Amino acid sequence: MxxxxxxxxxxxxxxxxxxxxxxxxxxxxxxxxxLLSSPKxxxxxxxxxxxxxxxxxxxxxxxxEAERRIADITVANLVRDGxxxxxxxxxxxxxxxxxxxxxxxxxxxxARLTPEH
Length: 117
Known about the structure:
38% helix, alpha+beta, Arc Repressor Mutant, subunit A, four-stranded antiparallel beta sheet
């Protein structure tokens, strides 16, 4: 079923506010990030700022890090792994962090900010 222009314009205007992303708590368990490849880690970190990636002009990017390009296969693998959810409207795509994805992204960010001695 083809979607109309009204649906597509509503898609562009609608802003989904992600849950506030913070670092892991002291008692919160760490996600097993050693299982992730470097591109997957980079994609999750790119998502961390606003919780989404957008596909524009054939490339997945974050609003906060527009210069960082993320490959389709990386996004597809993260969707398959349950870390991102995909929403497509017309020719545009948006992925959002899932609860699992936020946990992994927060673990990666925490590790970067508080290196182990």
